[in-house]
Design brief:
With 204 residues, the protein is α/β, with parallel strands linked by helices. Helices cover 37% and strands 18% of the residues. The protein is globular, with a radius of gyration of 17 Å. The relative contact order is 0.17.
């Protein structure tokens, strides 16, 4: 409660709804709404229209503690899915961007999800090329270079690939292809928010 009051005094609004913070990091009302949503092959916390503020706060607001809070319902959804995972990794960012920001938001989430599930986290991929942000309904996987990502190490069995937001699905699918090249038998996804729940449908 004291930390919530301190955040309020510092001008921090709840990143989930923009209202008053009565709890640290996220208000009680938004905490009560957190639950995993599941579709075939992926788990997420809800639509971007509702939870985009959480992704932005983690990505741009440096509110690292959100990763610990939001990873819990994600991990619950993954556990309920029963995928029999061998490990967890994250969609990587370019090294200059990592050095500038100091962290990769999907990696913060992925490491905590892995810890909660009792699974190893590995940096199984590396990003080798820049690509512009994907439009919500572009679904234009062919517009992204095929070598956007590359395997960084060898893996085996089913793996979980974590990203903060699923937009068109194109970036995630390129990362998935690289993880399959690394040796994964199947790749599942976990996200904070999804702009288009149908984005992965044509490519499964």
């Amino acid at each position: 409660m004291l930390w919530g009051l301190l955040e309020g005094l510092l001008g921090h609004a709840c990143p989930g709804c923009g209202g008053r913070l009565d709890r640290p990091l996220l208000c009680a009302s938004c905490r009560g709404e957190l639950r995993p949503w599941a579709r075939e092959g992926m788990v997420y916390l809800g639509p971007y229209a509702r939870w985009g503020g959480l992704a932005r706060a983690l990505k741009y607001g440096r509110r690292f503690g959100l990763a610990l809070l939001l990873a819990r319902p994600l991990a619950e959804g993954v556990r309920e899915a029963g995928w029999g995972l061998c490990g967890v990794t994250a969609v990587p960012t370019l090294l200059p961007r990592l050095l500038l920001r100091g962290y990769n938001p999907p990696e913060l989430l992925a490491k905590e999800v892995a810890r909660l599930l009792g699974l190893p986290y590995r940096r199984a991929l590396r990003r080798v090329r820049y690509a512009p942000s994907q439009p919500t309904r572009g679904r234009a996987r062919h517009k992204l270079p095929g070598d956007l990502f590359a395997p960084a190490l060898r893996v085996e069995g089913p793996w979980l690939l974590v990203d903060d937001v699923l937009t068109s699905g194109a970036t995630f699918l390129r990362a998935k292809e690289a993880l399959l090249l690394a040796g994964a038998s199947r790749v599942y996804g976990a996200f904070l928010a999804v702009k288009d729940p149908e984005a992965l449908g044509p490519y499964r």
